[in-house]
Structures are given as C-alpha cells and as structure tokens.
Model the fold of this input.
Amino acid sequence: MNAIPVIIYVVDDDPDVRKALSRLLRSAGYTTRLFGSAGEFLVSGEARFSAGCIILDLAMPGLNGLQLQEHLGASNCHRPIIFLTGNGDISKSVRAMKAGAVNFLTKPVDDRELLTAVDEALRVDASVRALSSSRQSVSERLDTLTPRERQVFEKVVAGRLNKQIAAELGIVEKTIKVHRSRMMHKMNANSVVDLVHFASLAGIDAWSAASEIESGRHPNMRSEPELEHSNC
Amino acid sequence: MPDSPSVLAELVHELNQPLTSILSNAQAAQRFLASDHVDLDELREILSDIVTDDKRAAGIVRSIGAMLQEGSADDRKD
Done:
C-alpha cells in the first residue's frame, strides 16, 4: 500500500477555481489532478490506481456532482468525496452525505476548513484500503484450504468443539485435530478469535453459520467483492 | 421581468467562483510565503490570477447592479 501515490482529485468546471484549489493543496504538500467535468474524470479512470480523495463541485453543467457520486458508487469506487457548493443546499447536502460523502463545504472555502476535510478524507481512504486489503488476504488464505479443512474452519467458527466436529463429519477426532491444525496454520490464525475475525472479514457470519449447521444446511459464503475490486 | 430572480440567483452563484479563487489563491500565497523555498514565479502568477478574478467579480457585481436598477425602473413604471 505504501507504493500507491496519494492524489487529490479536483473536479470543478471553473478553471480559475481548479487552479486556485490546486495551489492551496500543493501548498500543504499534496499532489493534485484537475478535471473540468465529471465526465472527464470518469473517463480517465485515474482514481483506480491511487489512494486519495475527490474534491467535487456540486453544481457542474452536464453530469453534476451528485450524479458523479452515484456513478462512482455504482462502479465500486470508494474514494472519499468532499463536496463544494456555492449555496449550501441542505437537501442536496443530506443526499450527498447519505451516499457517503465525507464532507460538504461552502464556497468560498477557508484553507483550514478544506485542508482539515482533506486530512479526514485521507484517513477514511486509508482505512477503507486497509479493510479491503485484509479482506483480500483472508480470501486468498481461504482459497488454499482443502474442502475438508474448509468444513472444519466453518465448524470451528460456529463454535463447535473437536469432538462435535468429528461426530458431525463422521471422522475420528484425531483426524479432525490434524485438519484443524493445518487449517489454523494456513489461515495464519493463533486462536479461534482470529478465525472468527477472518470469517467476518470474508463475509461469513459465525452465528448464522452456527444456526445453518443446526438446521443441517451448509453455511453459505458471502463474498463482498465491492471493496476488493475498486473500479473508479 | 419574469426571469430576473433566477438570472439574479445565477449571477450571485457566479460571483462565488471568483471569490473562491481569490480566497484560495491568497491563502495559498500566504502558505507558500511561510515555506522555506519561495517560488517568485508562482507568486507572480497567483497575484495576476487574483487581479483577473477580482475584475471578473466586479463585472458580475456590475451586472447585478444593472439588473437591480432595471428592476426598480420597471417598478416605477407600474
């Protein structure tokens, strides 16, 4: 993650505003990329390969800020968005915040206000990225399990003891212990708590896994690809 | 003048753009000046942009003033 450049994207139809905001951001040490329209930004697909956030003018001709936010959300782009607006439209700001905007600032924007919002947005972006990369890593480790180890994983996560797992799978407890120890090693887990954490990252809910075992059904894997494949 | 309130609102909105540029340019300049390496070319560009945006804002203010005068002239006619 450390090799990914941090870039602040400024999307505003006014070239003077873009230039001025970019200077302000550069004065705080940030790298910026400027776009004159939402369409131009979407077509560039630039934000896909970088960390950072988007500063977005709400009222642009063509695709407006809220529509761009929708497009980015639909294409699984989770770069945090800071909206800039001329008139502080409350209903639009509520809509933008509900759709995941990290902030909503009124033009003209004071430097401290903007730079604080950018700091916050970058923290959000970093944690989203960290979560996404842990999910990816858990999912890769899960893929290395044999079908039997996978069954043992699910039963351990559901709170089953070795003896119970042995009875449920119709294997001797000694063999379960071998599968379990290999599974723990492959998952890089030191405890059941670690495993439950990994299961939740992979979208496997321990409680529903347990109840599905009770009812004789196989617990379903719910993969959550939206954070693993960012497409903006 | 059926369109004037919306045109006026549009002009007021337009006024925000140069004001935004002026503020961010001026604050960027302050921050650049506080740093170790002052890039004079950059500062010259910033000042020139501030001048341009100030004139742009003044033009919008003149349009708003003209509209308001027209409006009050219309009121007197009624």
Chain A touches chain B at residues 14, 16-17, 19-21, 23-24, 26-28, 59, 84, 86-87, 107-111, 114 (CB under 8 Å).
